[in-house]
Every structure is written in structure tokens, then in C-alpha cells.
Amino acid sequence: MTRVLVTGFAPFGGETVNPSWQAASLLAAEPPAGLTVTAAELPCAFATSLGALRDAVRACAPDLVLCLGQAGGRPAVTVERVGINLDDARIPDNDGAQPVDEPVVPGGPAAYFSSLPVKACVAAMRAAGVPAAVSHTAGTFVCNHVAYGLGHLIATEFPHVRGGFVHVPWAPEQVTDGTAPALEPATVARGLRALLVAAATTPADQDLKTPEGTTH
Asked: Is there a catalytic annotation at residue 216?
């Protein structure tokens, strides 16, 4: 059995739900065959999110780590290719912190690439009927903080682990005017089950050679 840790965030910005945690909970309740999935909720806070992630990795001892975050306005489940060593928050986090132009890890490398087969993961979700895409920016808020922090944890403390970050769209209940894109958490979870199977069976260095580059 492949052990998987999936994380989602607590609600933030005045929201009452976070679809990343909704999807993570659904994955843990109904994992793909051959995988055991543990879900952990991370605080949406720069100061404490990486400590919570480290604790969850130590407790779960996973083979794979999939961190999820909310990307309101995106129409698809997006697999992040890279996390950058930069915190630049346009709004405060749940603790009221708003770092500007600060590194995630002082002295750390500029970026960490996902150690998941990002294109194979996207292809698997599309095959499951879920809109998906490769993303080349995880932003500079707490999501990127965790995306980069996960890469740093893997590089420095957990070299046997593979992992990456995925953004999910708003849940329908968050879109009050009906104009922004949204996906049901159950649909997101269906796509993520296919992603996890692809990630568990495809080494990152054997990813699909298909064009997924975007200019914006």
C-alpha cells in the first residue's frame, strides 16, 4: 500500500469553507484502491503552516504528499509545477500577518520543482472527466509558502518522499453571484483520486512529454 498524506487549508478571507479541505477529507474517506490516505488541515498562516505540515509528515510517514489549496477564479484543478522562495501577501493571513518581499526559507534556493509527474497527473484527471491543467505559478500567498516549504522539507528532511501542490477552484457555495467558475468538491476529489494513482505509478522523471506551457 502506498501511504499518502493529503493536506488542505482552513477557511480564510472571511469564507466559511475551504474546498481544499473539503476535497482532502473526501479523499481520506474514500481513497483509491491500493492507497491509504490521511488528511490533515493546515492553518492558513505563514508562521504555522509549515510546522503543521512537518508534524503531519512525521506522523503519517507517507510515500507521497499532496498539498491542496484554494484558487478562486481558476476554472480547473491546477497542478503546480514550481514553488518559489517568496512571500508577498496581498491580504493578511488568518493570523493577521502580511509579509511583503520576504523569503519562505532565508538562504534557500530560488525555487523547488514538484517531484510529482505533473503532466501525467493532469492527463489522468482529464481522463476522469475533471477539468485540469498545469500551472506555472502558485502565487505568493500561503499556498506558495506551503508549495515551496514542502519542496524544502523533501530536500532537507524527507528525501524518500515525493510530493507537490495542487490548486482547486471555488466550491459552488462560495460563488454567490453565479458568474465565477466553481467545481463541486466531490468532482475535485474524483479527479484527485486519478491524480494520486498516476503519481503513485509514474516516476517524475518519466512524466509525459506533452506541451502544457502557458503564457498567462
From this structure: no
Active site annotation includes 143 = yes
Mind listing the pLDDT tens digit for each residue in 107-149? 999 999 999 999 999 999 999 999 999 999 999 999 999 999 9
Q: Quick check: is 136 catalytic?
A: no
**Residue 184 CA from chain centroid, whole number:** 17
Average pLDDT over residues 53-64: 98
According to DSSP, residue 87 is labeled: B
Distance CA 195, CA 192 (A): 5
Determine which one of 44, 60, 143, 145 is catalytic.
Answer: 143
Whole-model pTM over 0.85: yes
Q: Which residue is catalytic, options 60, 67, 121, 167?
A: 167
Catalytic residue among 60, 80, 121, 145: 80
For the packed helices 185-201 and 19-29, what is the interaxial angle rounded to 10 degrees? 60
Task: Report the relative pairing of strands 35-42 and 132-135 from DSSP bridges.
Answer: unpaired
CA–CA gap between residue 116 and residue 162 (Å, rounded): 6
Nearest in space to 67 (alpha carbons), one of 31, 38, 34? 38
pLDDT for the residue numbered 34: 96
Distance CA 26, CA 188 (A): 9
Q: How far apart are CA 98 and CA 125, in angstroms?
A: 34
